[in-house]
Design goal:
With 95 residues, this protein is an all-alpha fold. 45% of the residues lie in helices and 0% in strands. It has a domain of 39 residues. It contains three helices and no strands. The longest helix is centred in the middle third of the chain and has 18 residues. It binds zinc ion (ZN). The site of zinc ion has 9 residues, from helix 2.
């Protein structure tokens, strides 16, 4: 018997699961294990906004670190300051 799955972010009971590990790392595995598909979809939209707003280049490791940090805050409620998306302001990133 499998344990019932509860998403750590939204506490939904038995939601749809993320089907594939989104990227090959411990964090990717954790997303599949702890986060539901609707929350993952929300993050993907947020991520797109961040990429566009900050002009992130994903081949740069600093850009990926920036996204992973924001992902952790967004999905896992980890400590830290989430990057804001302020339409009135040009985005800049302090690495
Ligand atoms: Zn969820």
């Amino acid at each position: 018997m499998t344990e019932p799955f509860v998403c750590v972010r939204c506490d939904r009971d038995d939601p749809d699961r993320v089907e594939r590990v989104p990227f090959p790392s411990e964090l990717g595995e954790r997303i599949v294990a702890e986060i539901c598909a609707p929350c993952w979809e929300e993050w993907k939209e947020r991520q797109m906004l961040l990429i566009n707003h900050y002009g992130l280049k994903l081949h740069e490791s600093a850009a990926r670190e920036f996204l992973y940090k924001n992902l952790r805050i967004y999905l896992f409620g980890e400590e830290g300051t989430a990057a804001s998306i302020d339409a009135g302001e040009e985005g800049s990133v302090e690495w």
